[in-house]
Every structure is written in structure tokens, then in C-alpha cells.
Amino acid sequence: MAEKIDSKIPKIRFKGFEDGWLEDQLGERVEFFSGLTYSPRNVQKGVGTLVLRSSNVKNGEIVNADNVYVDPKCVNSKYVEVGDIAVVVRNGSRSLIGKHAQIKNRMDNTVIGAFMTGIHSEFPAFTNALLDTPQFDKEIAKNLGATINQITTGAFRQMMFRFPRRTEQTKIGGYFRELDLLIGLHKRKHDKLVTLKQAMLQKLFPQPGATTPEIRFKGFSGEWGEIEFKQIASRSTQATSEENLPRIEYEDIISGTGRLNKDIFKKPSRKVGIKFERSDVLFGKLRPYLRNWWLAEFGGIAVGDFWVLKPAAATSNLIYCLIQTAAFERIANQSAGSKMPRSDWNLVSNSLLRIPINIEEQQIIGHYFRTLDELISKHATQLQKLQQLKFACLEKMFV
């Protein structure tokens, strides 16, 4: 690839391409087709013609979500083909306008809904990438209706973009198609690991009324002990304002993941908070359903509505797993307040929970989930890098 300066060509191009890109209306380059209008009496349960709607488009992919099927006899619109692009053009939520996905696999007996527009292109991968660019977002903003969240087909056709020659469209489209496949691969691996973790949190910890978990590591038997949470973990209240320690705040944690979203060592702060050490567990007591928790990888100061939990009758890794279980969340979510609910320490600390009596079993369970978390984090990081790469390329490989 080579760097370019001319505004009529992209900043980065594949070698061998020098011609300028020509400006044209989108409608001159692709074919548009309308979605199906149907009535409630046409809807059938689980059988018939599948109608793709906004709920079926997620992260640039076609997904099964709240599927709607209609009587094939009422269908008077085009069936989708591989390569077609389904675009949301009308929705109650303004932010969803322009959401789109390419049909990548054969979908027999499938149409798009009335609030969608279909695009058929000779170069579908290029066109799909074009709709991912910031330029498309700008065109949407210019053409949105004043009172209704929609883009008319006429306005969509007249959107102006620059296009390269056919061979370059093929090259660019192929590049983004491969990048999307790689992103999808890492996303599926990440999502499978997250699903596995949720399943194992249920199976490796006893369910309500049970004294042992459904699945147990080899070599361990006997009932788990039932003790108060304050005996499992103690709560630190050591407030400090030391200037040389990093601060963790609510917005620094990616909810439900236990990962930080920034390098907090670069964040200047003198705020007062609770001091924590490496391997302490931070639990966000404010709106606990947001699941803001973190197993400390270094020492610092927890600022705001956190409990800093230190190991007592259980290892740090096991405590970190325990606060993610359904049993603990049921207790933590019995919070005080309605607008800004907070977990009640008096309630939580005196609640009975089951943990392995054998410290070795605690360590094995904790290590298992720690390994899972590391794998999840690895794929999440790789996914983020690929998404950032795609965003950068969309800005530099299109005019």
C-alpha cells in the first residue's frame, strides 16, 4: 500500500492503482429494493417466510433474534440473495438508522421488512465496507427526516460517494471481507468462552438448596461449608489520599468483564478512597446489577462506591468467582434506595453462602476461572485491536 495526498483519492491504496476516484450517486452504482409490508394476520409461528428486521441485524451480521415469519402467500417483495445488504432505514431509535448487514450465506424463503431497504451490488463487499465508513454516517445525518427517524429511498439513492475502478473495488472489498471474517472468528471464540464461564459458574457452585456443586474436580467430595460472607471476606475501610497510588473509579471498569478500559497509571488524581492491595477484590456496590467488579492486579485506591474485599476463609480467586454467582447477586441486588440502589453490607455480610472447606479445592476452582478470564480477555483484546484496525482502514482506504 502507498500513502497519497490528493483529496480525490484515499490516503492508503493497494499498489498498482493510481487513478482518481469518481464522485457519483449511490443509486447509480447499486440497485435498491423495498421490504415487505405485512399485517398481523399474516404472521405465523416459527414457519413460513422469514422477515428480516432491525432485531436481526447486530454488529454487522444477520442473527436470529425475535424472528418473525409470515405466510408465503402474502410475499410480494424480492427474496434476499447472497451478497445483498439489508439496511435499517426507519426505526423508533435514531441511532439505529443505517445499521446494516450483508447476507453472507444462502437464506432461502427470506425477505426484508418494510422498515428496511435492500441493496444489490455488483461489488457487495466494497459496498458493505462503504456503508461502514464515517462518510455514510455523515450522509445519514444530512438526510434524516425532521420528525420521523427515517431515510427515504430517494434520499438514499442520491447520497454522494467516490468510487474507484472495478478492479480496485474488488481488491478493497476483498480486504474488508477477510478482516470481517477475522473479527467474526475472534468474536465467536470470545462469546463461546463467556457462555462457558456463565455455565460453569452455575455448575461449579451449589444451586439453592444444594450442599455440593453439580460438577466437581476429581479427588474432592463431601459437603461444602455454609458460612456468613463476612467470614469468607472482610471489608477494608482504610481511607487514604496517597498521591503516588493509581485510582480506580466506576467508569474505569468495563461492566461484567472485570477488565479496565484505560491505563489508570496515566490518570492524574488526588481523590480520597479505600486503599487496596494486589489480589484484593473490588465490588461495585452502587447499582450492583451493573456488575462492576475487579480482581486487583496491583495496589491502588478505590474511589467511590466500592467494597474492597480481602480474603478470610476463602482465596481471593474464589471470592472473585463467588461474587459473580447467581446466589451472591440475588443478595447483593436486594439493595437500599430506588433511583440509585446500593448493596447493603449488613445484609450481604450476614448472608450464608457455601464454599469448599478444602483450601486446595478453592485454589483449583479459582485457578480454573482465572484461566477462563485470561482467555476471554485475550480474545477481547484481539477483537478490539482488529476493530480499531478496521476503523482506521475505513478512514484511510476510502475518500
Automatic annotation (TrEMBL):
Parts forming coiled coils: none
Biological process per Gene Ontology, one example term: DNA restriction-modification system
Domain of life: Bacteria
Keywords annotated in UniProt: DNA-binding, Restriction system
Lineage, top ranks: Bacteria, Pseudomonadati, Pseudomonadota, Betaproteobacteria, Nitrosomonadales
Keyword Cytoplasm belongs to the record: no
Annotated PANTHER family: TYPE I RESTRICTION ENZYME MJAVIII SPECIFICITY SUBUNIT, TYPE-1 RESTRICTION ENZYME ECOKI SPECIFICITY PROTEIN
Molecular function via GO: DNA binding
InterPro entries, per database record: Restrct_endonuc_typeI_TRD_sf, Type-I_RS_S_subunit
Record-given protein name: Restriction endonuclease subunit S
